[in-house]
Amino acid sequence: MGGGDFTVTxxxxxxxxxxxxxxxxxLPLSNLDLLLPPVDVxxxxxxxxxxxxxxxSMIGVLKEALAQALVSYYPFGGEVLSNSAGEPELLCNxxxxxxxxxxxxxxxxxxxxxxxxxxxxxxxVPKKKHGVLSVQVTELKCGGVVVACTFxxxxxxxxxxxxxxxxxxxxxxxxPLSVLPSFRRSLLNARRPGSYDPSLDDMYVPxxxxxxxxxxxxxxxxxxxxxxxVTAEQLSLLQSLATSKSSSxxxxxxxxxxxxxxxxxxxxxxxxxxxxNVLSIPFGKKTINELKEKPLSWVADAxxxxxxxxxxxxxxxxxxxxxxxxxxxxxxxxxxxxxSRDGPAFVVSSGQRFPASRVDFGWGMPALGSYHFPWGGxxxxxxxxxxxxxxxxxxxxxxxxxxxxEWIETEAAHIFRPLSxxxxxxxxxx
Length: 430
Prior knowledge:
- The protein is of the alpha+beta class.
- Helix content is 27%, strand content 24%.
- The protein is built from eleven helices and 18 strands.
- The strands form four sheets. It has a seven-stranded mixed β-sheet. The chain has a six-stranded mixed β-sheet with strand order 1-6-7-8-3-15, with helices on one face.
- Strand 11 and strand 12 (283-287) form a beta hairpin.
- Helix 1 (55-72) crosses helix 3 (158-172), helix 5 crosses helix 6 and helix 6 packs across helix 8.
- The chain is globular and about 60 Å long.
- Mean pLDDT is 88; it is low at 271-282.
């Protein structure tokens, strides 16, 4: 039995709260948090069978460490409710974290990690029903373990989720926290008077101005999830191709990979629509013909220019002021809700600081750690992360349409290779 053809049985559900009492109070969301729709982001870690620990003892370590970590990360033990203005607000009340224990009748080496829709979604990553965070710990047939979490993205972005995961692992090993979290929302207060660049009106929109969501049609090109690996050698080659001879500095590997994907996705579409590419907050539009015909270095230069204007302090302060000017009307990134209407669109989010190697609860580093983010928007989503087995390689999570995935796998199979147990050295997992 392998791939996704296996059964997961949940044996126990409980709530883990902070080990020390937490004074109940309301924590407003920052203006940047208010731009996020109510979506959850998943993350999972696969561990080979430990030599000297039972599953029960690992569960005990995880729960005790979680209760300790929630003392410092108390917002993760709260819940999001609506305030009197109708805006989401975090009630820090130590309701705790839903914690599930489960068993899957599949060996780690037989998990089809290339296709998370088959092996991860709704099986190993929990569906969050309450609170800010849910945890599922699953014992595998071989004795391996999968530790998976689902966060409310409005409360935990990748940076804060990464901090929490490392702190949880440090608590499990009785180590002091290497970083202490700060929840001072005053650092992100709007200015008085506020000001922002009018270009933000094209990047973010009040939700009341959006057309109603389209009903799924039988012929729609649905979004699916895949995991690949890209070798260091291919990344270096892309970087050299993406750096024009006239450039004074190399394009980054992230810019180079984004440019390559942008060109690849453009080749799927022949209707002349605009393609929108997003890295974090900045975005750009280029015509399909431009993306097809121009060299990779031209596309990478365009991405570099978009980034330069949007990694400044003034850009983020202006965005905070833009939200303040529209409150309490909810707003969100235009690409999330209307990407496919304006042309094919996808987001590239760097996961290069994903600290998978540091999420060691006392039984070794994970054989694989990955985000899982089928975010519900109409645009695609791509996150490259460091490989756990070879320095310089990347593991790339893709949430793209069936047509885009098929084209990439046909035309760029030498670059995006399906993530496999052989690559991850899982054959000795039992």
